[in-house]
Amino acid sequence: VQLQASGGGLVQAGASLRLSCAASVNIFALSRMGWYRQAPGNQRELVALLTSGGVIKYADSVKGRFIISRDNVQNTVFLQMNSLKPEDTAVYYCHAYMDRDHWGQGTLVTVSS
């Protein structure tokens, strides 16, 4: 499984960004897809995930601001990030599970105050 992530960048606090993660397989073959992030000096943490059955989970820190969704035709998962805060600054990694964990390359999100 290949995962191609895109959409990071530098924005000011309060702005929005949308991350995309395109999978090389039919996303329904994946038990779950989602996004993790890792800030400098911190462990990688779950941001949001979406299961093949449609269950969605968010980290408490992003609830009400981030939305995870998918396009079944494009085999792509999106993370719409609204009302960004400086503490959202991190490298964001796309993740998928099928038999084992699969990771995309990270995409850097920087939110300035």
Keywords for this entry:
seven-stranded mixed beta sheet; 113 residues; globular; mainly beta; 11 strands; 0% helix; four-stranded antiparallel beta sheet
Strand content: over 45%
Structural class: mainly beta
Separate helix tally: 0
**How much is the radius of gyration in Å?**
13 Å
Taking the alpha carbons of the first and last residues, their distance comes to 37 Å
Shape: globular
Residue stretches low in confidence (pLDDT < 50, at least 5 long) are none
Largest sheet: 7 strands, mixed
Please give the share of residues in helix.
under 10%
DSSP E strands, number: 11
The overall average pLDDT, rounded, is 96
Would you list the SSEs in sequence order as H and E? Answer: EEEEEEEEEEE
Structure description:
The chain is mostly beta strands and 113 residues long. 0% of the residues lie in helices and 56% in strands. The radius of gyration is 13 Å and the shape is globular. It starts with a strand and ends with a strand. The model has no long low-confidence stretch (mean pLDDT 96).
